[in-house]
Amino acid sequence: MTTATRGRPLDVQPTGGLLRHRDFRLLWAGQTVSSVGSNVTTVALPLVAVAVLDASTFQVAVLTAAAWLPWLLIGLPAGAWVDRLPRRSVMVVCDLFCASAFLSVPLAALLGWLTVAHLLVVALSAGAARVFFETADQVYLPVLLRPEQLPEGNAKLQATQTVSHVVGPGLAGLIAQLTGAVAALLLDALTFLASAALLLRIRTREPRVRRPDRSRSLRQDIAEGLRFVVRDPYLRVLTAFGAASNFGLSGYQAVLVVFLVRELRLEPGLVGALVGVMSVGGIIGALVATRVGRRWGTAPALLIGGVLAGPPALLIPLAAPGVGLTWPALGGLVVGLGVAVGNVVKGAFRQTYTPHHMLGRVTVSMQLLNYGTIPVAAVLAGVIGARYGVGTAVFVMTAWQAFTPLILLIGPIRRRRDLPAAPVAS
User: I need a labelling partner for 5 at 20 to 30 A (CA). Which of 28, 121, 142, 421 fits?
Assistant: First the structure.
């Protein structure tokens, strides 16, 4: 996929040269190993809470919520700071901080000090670092790549990130089965160290960050990013859809491990394998996203991704032991495919459409709602699961997810073939 010059529609054509781009390969490798580790944590942390500390359904849901709560607490100022700081340095510091946080878990377990409260602090700390890392990452990619390379770059990053959704849970389940869930978090810490080492090898010099006007405060910078998103008809709709979709996705995912372990009586290894299979669709989606955008247009590609990420989620609560595991595997696969297609198209669109000096603030303004709904959904799912049963919680959240694609029909997206490359001048 290539990107038209500003003022012309965003087109999607393969460029095919990024495998020869040394610095992109380093960024890609760093993100891949870090993402594998993070997806080990998505299964390992709840398994530690359930199997080692005998945590309740509500406690596990709160643990999931804690990882995303920093988007609500520090998201907006983080975006403004990222627009003022060297992005690679921000990413390296975040990697090292996360490595330290996850190393503390096996150390505390070894000393007999591990508690649910400790896991909660680790989840919050790593979540805060993730706010800065992901925002800086979105702004850093256009530094390494030309505008016409961004769609290909986003597709490759999305593909390997999705592969990590398959590999990570499987590794977590295998390690938990063989050596215990706590040991899986040690792997996560090592992946963050590897990511930092790879990022430090990048040679591309980042342009000097534009110093803000001394008369402008951090609050004014934040407000500028928010206004840009709220007033733009495309970013506004994409933000609302992302928030609603993440609410459903994170709601059922927050209690999925509890559902599989306590309701279906699955072994940790099988839990990791099933979650991995549910994520395979994301690999397919990332691989075909550029083709879908080229064949039907980037705006219809968003609609197709939304439809695939919605109604098929209703297959997940049909899960049952044995052959009944086919339903969540199929539902999760199709949902993951749709989410990946949408993420690839949306990521390239936002990076080319938004003025670069505002990209950090615009990104985090969108993610404030996109990710800010996740802790709310996780806690709500925990409350429903504790009161009415975890199976009911999974059904309620997947039912919500099924209707979210309707939001994409609001505004101009449904009337276009391709998304624009720049805002219309007022």
Answer: 28
